[in-house]
Amino acid sequence: VGRTLLVTGGTGLLGRRLVRQAAERGWAVLAPTRHQLDLLRPGTVVDLVAAARPAAVIHTAYAKASQDDLDRVVVAGTEAVARAAAAAGARLVHLSSDTVFSGALPDDGDGPRPWREDDPTDAISAYGRAKDQAERRVLAAVPGATVVRTSLLLGDPDDPGPQELLARDPAATHWADCHRQPCSAADLATALLDLLDLLDLADQDGDRDGGRVAGPLHLAGADVVDRATLAELIAGGPVRRTSSPPGIPLDTRLDLTRARDLLPRMPRGIRSLLPG
Ligand SMILES: NC(=O)c1ccc[n+]([C@@H]2O[C@H](COP(=O)([O-])OP(=O)(O)OC[C@H]3O[C@@H](n4cnc5c(N)ncnc54)[C@H](OP(=O)(O)O)[C@@H]3O)[C@@H](O)[C@H]2O)c1
């Protein structure tokens, strides 16, 4: 049995794929139930990580149904995971979101460009602000952590995610003015595990901080689409289009250069996944 990988949110859309793929790749995977690791009860996080002493932690768990969820699960719960990982000396990969950016693309004078990792964050939604706070708590506790900002995630035909369910709901309307960079959760899981392999290499080089992999990392599909077009690609036909309400980031396209330079393979873009 290989080294231990702790996956938080192992029952989730991304977590399920991570758990399956990590086991196939030789990790001893620990995917605790909510009873065993509850982000609302930081003591459970501390106890579980201290007992398991994982070599690596991928933190995917989150909840966003209320401001209380954002404060206690996303921000405080994530901080508890980061502190526990630091105490155990575990590598930490934290899942964050493109919504840490406002959606008004940066412009250095040559026209709008995608968001780079070193651009200042400027979230406009409560969720984006909470994920931004969580990132800061992670990097304060574990400076060598990798904070992976991703975009909309899709499931698979036999295990669809929320985007697929929404696209196939005839009553749903879809925002035509909101641009994202979707990828499949399975492809993202593969890239995250490839990232852990790089961290292993960094360890062997005596580079305990992970150097090149520390800090924010933009990792999403290559193709930018509006959410109505995404729904049409999934549904295979026209959907009901509308505009997004105020407070939704309109264009969070991410510059993927850093991930492309680091990783052996990138998540496929939506035009390759669902050619239409
Ligand atoms: N999905 C997207 O489109 C998207 C886009 C950008 C970024 N992300 C980020 O990617 C990550 C994974 O997203 P996902 O779509 O895979 O999530 P998901 O399917 O909604 O799964 C959430 C997971 O978190 C767990 N969880 C919720 N509250 C918890 C608590 N109090 N204690 C412990 N575990 C708790 C859930 O466990 P239960 O099964 O027990 O409820 C579930 O396993 C998140 O950090 C998210 O911010 C996702």
**Spatial order of strands in the largest sheet:** 2-1-3-4-5-10
Q: Bound small molecules, which ones?
A: NADP nicotinamide-adenine-dinucleotide phosphate
Mean of residue pLDDT values: 95
**Radius of gyration based on Cα positions:** 18 Å
Shape: globular
Tally of DSSP helical segments: 9
Beta-strand level of the residues, as a percent range? 15-25%
Which residue ranges are poorly predicted, with pLDDT under 50 across at least 5 consecutive positions? none
Q: Can you write the helix and strand succession as a string?
A: EHEHEHEHEEHEEEHEEHEHH
β-strand number: 12
Distance between the termini: 42 Å
Report what the structure shows.
There is one protein chain. The protein is an alpha/beta fold and 276 residues long. The protein has helices spanning 13-24, 42-52, 67-88, 126-141, 162-167, 185-204, 227-235, 257-262, 270-273; strands spanning 4-8, 28-30, 56-59, 91-97, 146-150, 153-154, 173-175, 179-180, 183-184, 215-218, 225-226, 240-242. The strands form 4 sheets. A 6-stranded parallel β-sheet has the order 2-1-3-4-5-10, with helices on both faces. Strand 4, helix 4 (126-141) and strand 5 form a beta-alpha-beta unit.
Summed up, what is this model?
38% of the residues lie in helices and 15% in strands.
Characteristic key phrases:
12 strands; single chain; binds NADP nicotinamide-adenine-dinucleotide phosphate; 276 residues; globular; 6-stranded parallel sheet; alpha/beta; two-stranded parallel ribbon
